[in-house]
Design brief:
Blueprint lengths: L2 E4 L3 H12 L6 E10 L3 H14 L5 E3 L6 E4 L7 E3 L3 H10 L10 E9 L2 E9 L5 H19 L13 H11 L2 H15 L22 E7 L2 H13 L4 H17 L3 E8 L16 E8 L5 H17 L5 H8 L13 E6 L11 E6 L10 E8 L2 E9 L5 H18 L37 H14 L17 H15 L5 H6 L3 H18 L1
Parallel strand pairs: 5-6, 11-13
Antiparallel strand pairs: 1-4, 2-7, 2-12, 3-4, 6-7, 8-14, 9-10, 13-14
């Protein structure tokens, strides 16, 4: 079988790293279609194969240390046909982990409910896909099935590039002076910002997050939605920016902090060549927002400036911003920000198959990658606010109350003649760490004392790209990134067979301490025999 390799894009590197931290279904993207009617299973399989043949990223696997992605020139996509309890099959199909190295991370299962009713389950790992790509997959599968059913060739546009081309282009462009200037900009934006958001919680935060999530929704009344749109139009802003101001105001009020950093997703498809391509282009940018302004007009103007500046510098990969700033390391929290706000404007496409009624279903993921993620949906009947929350620390009544407060602020923003939240005092300001300017440290250079320390140090030096690192030097203090640490960990695991996890390396950030933990693990294994 012919194969060829490309580097991973920065986005792929990030999702590879996140998968190592939290293996399982947290980073799986599903398509669930209920198919009612006379389904031609043979044509469905042929249509799936045609789509996989078009997009190289659907035929790609990933080296265990994330150095390259390996594209197969051909790959026969498996279609598994099963019968049984739909809820159980769906849950297992969506959650079953992928081995990113052994095969492309694409799983397709057809559940037969009755002769004229099926449910199609497609799962793709985020390393190969994003929300926009799911729309591309659904649209192309529909076009291909329809054409094959009618006995003609599918009319799909030629793809001028493949994802590997994008990864090469991105790596080439985001280097040297261009990357340095972009990182300097983001350092200037974020230095002094709070590293954490200290919201009140209903239970203590666990040392290791489970990523267990839930969601609450609130429909904004149409009259208020109309006033929000009018406010945005008057100030040259977007509806998303108005909701962002309301969200930030609630978060700072609840936390007692004077500002907050909120992440927002960007599609990353500015180049026309990649608009119709399946792949992971999505990234995030941090928005540093202060709610110390005194009027709705000032709050909205400030948020507009922050958003436009972030959009203008969105091509700097978030992974590189984190590496450059090296914020305080905490396995229980995401770096730089722990809350998100997204405007949901991903294109939607009607799916129609001849002889088959196709109904899309949205499975409940049960996962929250951040403490809070607010998705803002603009619908004809009014805004829909969809809040995903971390069940480790929050509960449904608390989050319902948070959304109620967002609506209160939206109402105030459109008519700020009334006091906000009445006479309710804000929460006292907590003591939080601040993001500091990047520092450069020179390693002390102490040499290893045994073979295991030498092996660990060798991999840490290789990942860092600096032979001066000593066995007692902190890997992160000397410029190491979380991704580089994870790469070293995978190679250490391959060479030694030890299955210590990422938390061990992040908690033991020197070669000497990590080797000592491995020796301790060996002794524990001996005692338990």
């Amino acid at each position: 079988m012919t194969e060829y390799t490309f580097p991973l894009s920065f986005q792929q590197h990030r999702f590879w790293y996140l998968e190592q931290l939290s293996p399982g279904g947290a980073y799986h993207l599903p398509i669930v279609l209920r198919l009612t009617g006379e389904l031609r299973v043979d044509l469905l399989h042929e249509a799936l194969q045609l789509v996989v043949d078009r997009h190289e990223v659907l035929r790609t696997r990933y080296q265990p240390d994330a150095q390259v992605q390996v594209v197969a020139e051909e790959w026969a996509v498996p279609l598994t046909i099963v019968e049984g309890d739909l809820d159980r099959i769906r849950a297992e199909t969506l959650a079953e982990p992928f081995d990113l190295w052994s095969a492309p991370p694409l799983r397709v299962v057809l559940v037969r409910i009755a002769p004229d009713e099926h449910v199609l389950l497609m799962v793709v790992h985020h390393i190969a896909c994003d929300g926009w790509s799911l729309g591309v997959l659904g649209r192309e599968l529909s076009i291909a099935y329809t054409a094959l059913h009618d006995g003609r060739e599918p009319e799909l546009p030629e793809l001028p590039v493949q994802y590997g081309d994008y990864a090469l282009w991105q790596r080439d462009r985001m280097s040297g002076d261009v990357l340095a200037a972009g990182l300097a900009h983001w350092a200037n934006v974020l230095v002094g910002a709070p590293a954490t958001l200290e919201l009140p919680t209903v239970r203590p935060r666990p040392a290791t997050p489970t990523l267990a999530g839930d969601r609450v929704q609130l429909a904004v009344p149409e009259p208020l939605t109309r006033r929000v749109a009018e406010l945005a139009h008057r100030h040259g802003a977007s509806v998303f920016m108005v909701v962002l101001v309301a969200y930030a105001t609630v978060l700072t009020r609840l936390s007692g902090q004077d500002e907050v950093v909120i992440g927002t997703a960007i599609a990353g498809r500015e180049r026309p060549e990649v608009v119709g391509l399946v792949g992971c282009f999505i990234d995030v940018v941090p928005l540093r927002l202060s709610t110390a302004k005194t009027s709705a007009e000032e709050l909205l103007a400030a948020a507009r400036r922050v958003c436009l500046d972030a959009y203008a510098h969105q091509d700097v990969p978030f992974e590189r911003i984190v590496d450059h700033l090296r914020p305080p390391r905490d396995p229980a929290r995401a770096p730089l920000f722990q809350v998100m706000c997204n405007g949901q404007d991903t294109p939607r496409h009607d799916v129609s198959w001849p002889g088959v009624e196709v109904t899309g279903e949205q499975p409940e993921p049960g996962v929250s990658k951040y403490d809070l993620t607010l998705d803002v949906h603009q619908r004809s009947g009014g805004l829909l606010l969809d809040l995903e929350f971390n069940r480790d620390v929050f509960d449904e009544p608390q989050m319902t109350g948070l959304l109620d407060r967002v609506v209160v602020v939206l109402d105030w923003l459109t008519d700020d003649t009334r006091p906000l939240f009445g006479d309710e005092p804000p929460r006292p300001a907590p003591q939080v760490e601040r993001i500091t300017a990047p520092k450069t440290h020179r390693p002390a250079g102490v040499e290893p004392r045994d073979e295991l320390e030498a092996l660990v140090l060798g991999h840490l030096r290789a990942a860092l790209g600096d032979e001066r690192l000593g066995v007692t030097d902190d890997f992160f203090d000397h410029g190491g990134s979380s991704l580089a640490a994870m790469t070293a960990l995978v190679r250490i695991q391959q060479d030694t067979g030890h299955r210590l996890g990422p938390a061990d390396l992040f908690g033991e950030a020197t070669a000497a301490a990590f080797a000592a933990r491995m020796h301790e693990s060996d002794h524990e294994s001996e005692r338990n025999r």
